[in-house]
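Hi F.,

I've been meaning to write this up properly since the lab meeting, where we talked about keeping a consistent format for the predictions we share between groups. The idea is simple: the sequence comes first, exactly as it goes in, then the structure tokens exactly as they come out, then a line or two of notes. No screenshots and no reformatting. I'm using this chain as the first example so we have something concrete to point to.
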Amino acid sequence: MKSDTKNIVIAVSVIITVFVAAYGCTVLYAGLSSPFYTVESGSMMHSADSKIGIIDTGDMVVVKDVSKMSITTYAEACVTGYGKFGDHGDVVLYKNAAGRTIIHRAILFMEHLGGGKWNIPALAAYPGMWSCAKDAVGYHGILSITAGYRDIPITIDLGSPAYAGLPAGTCGYITMGDNNSSADTLFVTEDMVIAVAAHEIPWLGCVKLLITGNNADKVPWNSVIYLILSIALMIASVFAAAFTFERMRRKKE
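Output, unedited:
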């Protein structure tokens, strides 16, 4: 094997080893066998272009098992100042009725007390606009709250079958995408949440979307450019490492 070829093989082997080790560490960190999620929709975008730190179409997200972290809702985080991915509160992943994985922000945590009455702890200190009837048992009737990245007015009928029909003791979340004009119609119970978004890997998910053609037309143009530049940089790093190995070998000789 020629010296240059040998050095390239060594450099590639080192890079692969680093990636395998990093994947293993991520699995342990996340507590999940599949710690990566490719974002296929634009429901969490804050603009037409992709931005680092925001969940955009074509991004990849490192997710953690729910047991490994507590979920802070938007309403709670508005008081504490905690935030992830460009806004207050945590972003969760859950399965909807069709079995599709949805990645949206947890807006409000609620516990059904029975008979259409609810315990909503974060409302008392919430600094935003809200209104809801309350008696000695709990909140009831129509809940109106303005929340989210775009200050969206959310209206929930706590006495509707979708809410009042839930068993007493059921806990869960009102969720909403940062880029959506309304909250999710489905009340996300705690057992529906499959993971919590922890970190963003920008642009990497574009590879999957472009290959499968699934929502490929919704991938921001700058994500594709940044992805190409990242791949080019990685290839250049391999050749740079090979050149360095060869130079060190010759110097040693």
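Notes:
The longest strand covers residues 101-114.
The helical segments are 3-30, 74-80, 161-164, 206-212, 221-252.

If this format works for you, I'll send the rest the same way.

G.
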